[in-house]
Amino acid sequence: MLSSLMIRLLKPLFLLMLVSLPQLGQANTLLIFGDSLSAGYGLKEHEGWAHLLKQRIAQDYPTYQVVNASISGETTTGGLARLEKTLDKFKPTIVLLELGANDGLRGLPIPQMQRNLQTMIQQIKKTGSKVVLMEMRIPPNYGKRYTELFQKSYSQLAVQEEIKLMPFFLKDIAGQQQYLQQDNLHPNAKAQPILLNTIWQFIDPLLNKPST
């Protein structure tokens, strides 16, 4: 048995070890911060790709939780206004930033959208979280110059801020009626597993592998 003197000597070391170890059950958080494309507009909650992602991560990465803070109709201005409180509340490890489509569809100035996105990216980085910027595109009927400048703004931001850029995740369903709702903009339920697969291929390498 340890002597009382030995116990007194070892106690500070033991307490230091406890403080240094990660808390058991402490979860990493993947935050989805977007608009209707992530909020599941026109779908039942369990049908959207964000919910499917939550199920996939729960199965493959049990140390992660998924929080979907997306709002239908959100612009980059609206997202910027609520981002700080969202980060404070959930303290995410990784943020999927999916905004800008509504700015483009409303024909808002692209420099304004870029500034908003850049400010959000910088706010996220200050918290120590990884940022994944999800590239958005708009229909070609907005004119070649506007649509090209809109798309390029995402790659420019990714380079400037040195963050990951996820290529347009709707690329496999865009323009295909069988995967779109009646508005020809929002993906339907049949499209969601396709979107999940596209997103998963990109973010899977970013997640910490569970210990075996």
From TrEMBL:
SGNH hydrolase-type esterase domain span: 32-191
Signal peptide per UniProt: none
Coiled coil stretches, renumbered: none
UniProt cross-references to PROSITE patterns, sorted A to Z: LIPASE_GDSL_SER
InterPro entries, alphabetized: Ester_Hydrolysis_Enzymes, Lipase_GDSL_AS, SGNH_hydro, SGNH_hydro_sf
Protein name stated in the entry: Arylesterase
Record organism: Spartinivicinus poritis
